């Protein structure tokens, strides 16, 4: 197995970059930073669910609400079952909705801090000051919010367009929506990872390296979500084992996956920015070393 791995590293540059990034990920013990990220992101997602549910309650049309929920599910394929049903819990935008938005802003700064704690290990840099970390966190949640609104609008518009061109229950409609969901999801993932690697890291790596890493990691992340869905739907019946806690279990696993993929993508960017790391990794796997 090691011989095959070594041969692939020597033969394929892309594989060598991926392998070097994985080796650095392990050496830096980034799995501990993913745990820190998961805890803070879990609180943030709970606040996001409440805030979204409160916002959806303001919408006048039930059909519009349904299509918006479907657009959200296309952006986050892991959202399903009772997780998606929570978006329709609240009937009015009350005090809880306002508090959830404030809590969401606070958790954004915590998520930013968790990301930066891992990025400083990867890039061997110092953390920003407290004020800087707070501003980056708030800016990140603002960008994600704008991205979320735009992509939800695009998904909603495509659904309405396909509904106007094809019959709602027809083959063309279902084929179009099935193709649109992963395409929109991949675009969202690419833009989000690109923003994280270019801005949140604080080191401003090259645009090209950020783009290459973001498209690869975005595709990996989207594919992993669909595989998780397939696994939970047909292989491991989480609701049968955990009952009402199933949504929480799936959410934690998804956030852990998000942390791993995010930090691994940062390692890919770091390796692409430092070509000598690839050469050193190849030499370390050469026979006789």
Topology of this protein?
Elements: H1 2-11, H2 13-27, H3 31-56, H4 62-75, H5 81-85, H6 95-123, H7 130-165, H8 171-200, H9 207-234, H10 238-242, H11 246-273, H12 275-284
Helix pairs in contact: 1-2, 2-11, 2-12, 3-6, 3-11, 4-7, 6-7, 6-11, 7-8, 8-9, 9-11
Count of DSSP-assigned helices: 12
Please bin the fraction of helical residues: over 70%
SSE run? HHHHHHHHHHHH
Number of domains: 1
Quick one: overall form? Answer: globular
Brief descriptors of the model:
289 residues; mainly alpha; 12 helices; 0% strand; globular
Walk me through what this model shows:
With 289 residues, the chain is mainly α. The chain has one domain. The protein has helices spanning 2-11, 13-27, 31-56, 62-75, 81-85, 95-123, 130-165, 171-200, 207-234, 238-242, 246-273, 275-284. Helix 2 (13-27) packs across helix 12. The longest helix is centred in the middle third of the chain and has 36 residues, at 130-165.
Short structural description:
With 289 residues, this protein is mainly alpha-helical. It has helices at residues 2-11, 13-27, 31-56, 62-75, 81-85, 95-123, 130-165, 171-200, 207-234, 238-242, 246-273, 275-284. Helix 2 (13-27) packs across helix 12, helix 6 runs parallel beside helix 11 and helix 8 packs across helix 9 (207-234).
């Amino acid at each position: 197995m090691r011989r095959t791995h070594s041969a692939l590293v020597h033969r394929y540059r892309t594989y060598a970059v991926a392998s070097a990034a994985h080796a650095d990920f392990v050496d830096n013990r980034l799995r501990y930073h993913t745990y820190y990220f998961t805890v803070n992101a879990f609180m943030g997602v709970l606040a996001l669910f409440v805030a979204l549910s409160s916002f959806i309650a303001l919408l006048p049309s039930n059909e519009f609400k349904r299509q918006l929920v479907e657009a959200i599910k296309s952006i986050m394929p892991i959202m399903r079952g009772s997780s998606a049903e929570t978006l329709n819990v609240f009937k009015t935008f009350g005090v809880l909705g306002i508090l959830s938005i404030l809590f969401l802003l606070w958790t954004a700064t915590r998520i930013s801090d968790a990301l930066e704690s891992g990025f400083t290990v990867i890039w061997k840099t110092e953390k920003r000051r407290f004020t800087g970390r707070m501003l980056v966190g708030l800016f990140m949640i603002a960008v994600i919010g704008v991205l979320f609104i735009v992509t939800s609008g695009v998904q909603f518009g495509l659904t309405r367009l396909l509904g106007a061109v094809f019959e709602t229950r027809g083959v063309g409609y279902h084929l179009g929506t099935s193709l649109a969901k992963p395409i929109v999801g991949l675009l969202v993932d690419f833009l989000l990872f690109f923003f994280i690697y270019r801005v949140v890291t604080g080191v401003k790596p090259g645009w090209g390296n950020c783009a290459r890493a973001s498209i690869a990691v975005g595709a990996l992340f989207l594919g992993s979500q669909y595989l998780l869905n397939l696994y939970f739907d047909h292989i491991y019946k989480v609701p049968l084992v955990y009952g009402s806690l199933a949504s929480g279990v799936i959410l934690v696993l998804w956030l852990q996956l998000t942390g791993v993929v995010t930090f691994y993508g940062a390692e890919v960017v770091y390796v692409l920015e430092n070509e000598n790391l690839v050469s050193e990794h190849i030499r370390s796997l050469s026979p006789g070393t």
